[in-house]
Design a protein that fits this description.
alpha+beta; Hypothetical Protein Pfu-838710-001; 10 strands; about 20% helix; about 35% strand; globular
Amino acid sequence: MTAALPEDPVTEPAGSLEIRWIFPGEQDAAIASWFTRFPAATQALEDIYLLDPRLPALSVKIRSRRAFEVKAYRGSPAILDVAGRARGPMQSWQKWSFPLGPDSPAAAAPEGWIRVQKTRRVSRFSLARGRAVTGVTPQPGQPACSVELAEARLRGNPWWTIGFEATGPAGTLRTTLEATAALVFARPLPERTVLGPASSYSYAQWLTRQASPGANAEARQPLGKPRRLTQAYACRQGHEPLRLGVPLQNSVQRFDLRFGVADGLGA
């Protein structure tokens, strides 16, 4: 008989439509200045991402030592195209979040995971009569879009990124993202800043690119169908099992039992 898993709160899945561009090197002062015309909150944090084994169409991370988060890729419904200023595939995701205590063993970054330090400036927009506006706090469940300009450190190397995340009712996500992008890119980007498909990645795809010199082609493949999250701590060929600690293993098992089959995430 299998022992019942202890109760542990988990959010219902939250849907989003997202796009992100990621670049190597230090963030240019001109792009930071370009972004300052919108009010933004600044946050420094460290996220720990699952890198090995790679789980297609799942992005798994420990967010700032406070939450275990799983995102499932649901396809790319359209291309964002702000003529001459930004272009790339919009990606549909669902996210689940499990609270973690500060003393969770997962906070120590087990084998197979990688740390990414980030300093983020985040501006939040809402939708009013089909147009994006700032300075108005959207009500829970209403259309909203977060725009992030961030600096990141991966293995000591600098990167920078700009990303959009639209949330709210499913039928409003594309309109919200496109309206926000139109407002943000109404002012031309600094010279030599090109936001094109070649630099448009999710964090999961970007980390796959950085995993090994031969990973670039793999990162360009469609993300495909998610696999069972329990593979994250199963035995891997040539490796010891991932040791996540009992609290995190329980959360991983609970995710598969509750969502992995019902939402079609199973292998």
